[in-house]
Design brief:
about 230 residues; mainly alpha; 9 helices; 2 strands; about 80% helix
């Protein structure tokens, strides 16, 4: 049977058109799937970066708060220590001896103890090698002077913190208070010296935390390289 040339050409053209149409649809689906996959990967990368930023920011904020409090309490320890160790004619103890009223000196002792305990708590929470060393040294000194402080109603606890028996403290005479809480070689002076180091260390840690929180984020982002690979 002879097939006319026009019919054969028409049939081949129809087959070619159908094949091209199928190929185009397949390519279209493949391209669509690639775009969808690329979009999904981009969205996941963005979510990961957002989560990392949130985590780093929260961690940095928590650390900043800790070191801010540590610095504050350490500086307060120093301030109370200055009041207690002032040996001038208008010192707390000179005024107490003259008036017979020890209430101002007692208030300074209580303030010192409160800030000292808070500083110890901050050092314990931090747990860094340097802060652990500061806490160890402070605990060592408080142990050495524990018996003297007990004469004024201030007890050293097992964890190194101090507890105040307010009635016993208020009943202590000015001479005893001065002997225990004043002087350049007493517990207060030694604690103040270490508190100065604690405050300086907290300041350095605050600066380091502020810097590291964001540099860490961008380091992780840059090392992945995935964002740019999506477009290759």
């Amino acid at each position: 049977m002879r097939i006319p040339r026009n019919y054969m050409n028409s049939h081949l053209a129809s087959n070619n058109t159908s094949s091209n149409s199928l190929l185009q649809r397949a390519l279209s689906r493949s391209s669509k799937n690639k775009r969808t996959s690329r979009t999904s990967l981009l969205m996941n990368a963005a979510d990961n970066r957002k989560n990392l930023l949130t985590s780093n920011t929260a961690s940095a904020a928590q650390s900043q708060k800790l070191y801010y409090n540590m610095k504050y309490h350490a500086e307060q320890v120093k301030n109370y220590a200055e009041k207690l160790t002032d040996a001038g004619s208008k010192s707390l103890f000179a005024a107490a001896k003259e008036s017979g009223d020890v209430s101002e000196a007692v208030s300074a002792v209580k303030g010192f103890v409160s800030q000292y305990n808070s500083m110890l708590d901050n050092l314990k929470e931090s747990g860094t090698r340097a802060d652990t060393l500061y806490r160890t040294q402070l605990n060592s000194y408080s142990n050495i002077y524990a018996s003297e402080m007990a004469k004024c109603g201030v007890k050293r606890n097992a964890d190194g913190t101090l507890s105040v028996d307010e009635k016993a403290l208020a009943a202590t005479d000015a001479d005893t208070l001065e002997k225990v809480w004043s002087g350049s070689n007493g517990f207060v002076s030694r604690a103040a010296s270490w508190a100065d180091s604690v405050a300086a260390g907290a300041e350095r840690n605050m600066e380091a935390q502020a810097s590291n929180a964001y540099s860490s984020l961008f380091d992780n982002y840059g090392n992945s390289g995935k964002y740019f690979n999506f477009f290759r």
